[in-house]
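Limitations

Structures in this collection are predictions, not experimental determinations, and the ligand pose is part of the prediction. Treat each record accordingly. The example that follows, with zinc ion as the small molecule, is included so readers can see exactly what is and is not provided: the inputs are given verbatim, and the output is the predicted complex.
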Amino acid sequence: MSTVEILGTAQDAGVPHLGCRCDTCESAREGTRPTRYASAVLLEDAGRYLFDATPDVRFQIPDVPDGVFLTHAHLGHLAGLPYFGSESADTDGLPVYATPGLGDVIRDNDPLRSLVSDRHVDLRSITDGSAVHLESTSVTPIRVDHRESLSTGTLAYRVDGPNRSLLYMTDVDSLTPRAESLVRDVDVALLDGTFWSGDEIDRVEDVPHPTVRSSMNALADVDTEVRFTHLNHTNPLCDPASDARAELESAGFRVAERGDTVEL
Ligand SMILES: [Zn+2]
Ligand SMILES: [Zn+2]
Ligand SMILES: [Zn+2]
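Predicted complex:
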């Protein structure tokens, strides 16, 4: 048996969002609604494997994991990596899985370079489709389209346990036919739910994501258990009492929540 625990469900910058005074962010600061950490999950089989090194990592896991799978080089997915260095957990040879391009960035640039040169992390290159076999689980990186400008690439992960499969896909530009088939092909999908609708922020064309509304339509007939994650602070799904949340749940979908677990 292996288990995936959800550690965070926000877009990279978390909730509250620096510089924002919206109700969601103010409620999170005041403690009347929960904060949301940046999207991450922990896979436990015989070992414990973290997916995404977020800026919230020190709140998300108490102990150093046995490995880290990186998705891409944006704030919420990479900025926690220095916490494994000498100022913090001071790890010794922690396996960190990343695309070859992202590995080069980590190896060649301050402040990440010393993680490699001081051997806190052991970088391991992974590419599209190359499965990593853990104790009772296999983890398959899948290259997805997310910001062409990000030359180091973006990965989703398919996790196959002894009984069930899970897709972790937090950042995609759109729900392409291929992305949709990845969702349809697993038992549980943790899916990019950044925006509920296309009018939440002014610069939405600069940060393309499929809206939850459009994904709900495209996936209306799926057998997969779909849980939306990576919520932007503007997304009304952040509020459990919102009309959007009721609409989502009545259509058979869910919002991923910190502490939820999925048995695989
Ligand atoms: Zn992201
Ligand atoms: Zn806000
Ligand atoms: Zn991103």
